[in-house]
Write a structure and sequence with these properties.
The protein is mainly alpha-helical. It contains seven helices and no strands.
Length: about 120
């Protein structure tokens, strides 16, 4: 089978479509139902529920996703009192936040302390 030669140049018709500015006013809204209303959603309320946080943490650990684990903990730490969490767990606030940095590798001991606090209340 012979190779097909393709051009890397952009044709005139492609240049025109690329130069057009994107505008949200060009899109028409879709109405689904007459009385449909959106409800307010505050993600911090879910991050206050320890059962939800624990379930998400265990799923992240089962999948081996350390970044998701850190993101879940970071969200929970932002929603609760960090001082109270540090006192209950016996981990300093500095160590708690260091656990969440991108290049960190939290110890199993610190992870166990945080999970123990989440399970106890």
């Amino acid at each position: 089978m012979a190779k097909v030669k393709t051009s890397k140049r952009i044709g005139k018709s492609s240049k025109k479509s690329l130069s057009k500015n994107f505008d949200l006013d060009d899109f028409k809204g879709v109405r689904l139902k007459k009385d449909l209303r959106l409800q307010e959603h505050d993600p911090s309320t879910a991050l206050l529920e320890k059962e939800i946080v624990l379930k998400a943490i265990f799923e992240a650990l089962e999948e081996g996703d350390d970044q998701a684990f850190k993101e879940i903990l970071r969200g929970h730490f932002e929603a609760v009192s960090k001082t109270e969490l540090a006192e209950k767990s016996g981990i300093s606030r500095r160590t708690l936040f260091r656990m969440l940095s991108a290049d960190s590798n939290p110890t199993l001991n610190n992870i166990a302390k945080v999970i123990k606090i989440l399970k106890s209340s």
